[in-house]
Amino acid sequence: MTTSPAVQNDPSPIVACTISRDVQIFDLLIEDMESALGDSWGNLSFEDAAAFLAQPDARALQFVTIALDAQDEDNLQQVSDIITAAKAARIKVILIAEDLTPAALHRLLRIGGDEFVPYPLPENELARAIERVLTIDDTAQFSPTGTQFKATGTKSGVVIPIHGLAGGTGATMMAVNLAWELANIDPKDPPKVCLIDLDFQFGTASTYLDLPRREAVLEMLTDTAAMDAESFMQALLTYGDKLHVLTAPTDMIPLDMISPADITRVIEMARMNFDYVVIDMPSTMVEWSQTVLEAAHVYFAMIELEMRSAQNTLRLKRALQSEELPFEKIRFILNRAPGFTDLNGKSRVKRLAESLGISVEVLMPDGGKAVMQSADHGTPLAESNPKNPLRKEIMKLAKSVHEVNVTATADAKA
């Protein structure tokens, strides 16, 4: 390894550089770079990188690896400038990220990162990443893994996870029906919607829509580093030619079999191909639950007016706040809420919210037997029972979400 490409005395040409705050922090990266390139690489600090990339000598570089960890999130603008300089010089960019939030990673990928590899580096993953970035088309759009997108992969979808805080609170019902309502919210310009079932063991989103489960889902999830837009879209099924669905795998798999990096790639791939990404979460908190929470624009938690929901809400609140995670993203939905004339029930809802220190912002009525019948028949409520009071409230929620998104998009363009 050399300390700077500008002072390289070895006759081997420099074809790549690592760029980091301190490359010694990423010792596995040093080993993998030496294994892949021998002495044909150099190292640059963030301070030196932008200046060097603007020099004619930088044109000889084939790619750079930018290594970051959580401490570098306060310095993203400098990193963004480095990526911009690299792309201007037609140099490929591989991001090596440790404990970087999905939002920060997404920003860097959108600016021009061609490939993402989590740190610590999986075995041989850097070599595969190098091979991919050196063979992809410069004119294509790129995914979070650096593999080629089709022209449709240019969106920045809204991520909406739905989490049931107790069994039977209706999380899957809400996820399926909210996704369907969003897909039909604007007949003239319907948004593209993707429903992802992340309950790998007992997920039933496919049952609610009468869709088969496919082996392709597990194949994709266990090798997300090789996932591109085509393989992702092929793993999806379509309901009613409007809603795309990533079902749970055919067989039960351990929830921790999929890593946070895998979940990040799947969510980012979905975001870049869809306007809305609705996620049906498992009730269990796992290693990648934080990944989904941080990627979410709004996180809906389903509860009921009973002790289980109250206890689990309090436990979730304590857990997130103790880890300084964004609890404020969570919006509580009370399913089977008391009706307008039930004054005693409305008083109980108020006491529940006050005792837990939360705000119950959405009240969903009891849809009755029609909800279970709809699920058994594999159709959304909008098709099986469009006048059901629960369906009407879900439609209102979808309209509210869509209006907020449209307004925010318009403000961002102004």
From TrEMBL:
User: Which molecular-function annotation in GO is an example for this chain?
Assistant: ATP binding
Residues in AAA domain copies: 159-312
Can you say what this protein is called?
Answer: ATPase, putative
Example GO CC term: the record gives: cytoplasmic side of plasma membrane
Organism of origin is: Yoonia vestfoldensis SKA53
SUPFAM superfamilies named among the record's database cross-references: P-loop containing nucleoside triphosphate hydrolases
One GO term (biological process):
negative regulation of cell division
Provide the taxonomic classification. Bacteria, Pseudomonadati, Pseudomonadota, Alphaproteobacteria, Rhodobacterales
Indicate the transmembrane segments per the record.
none
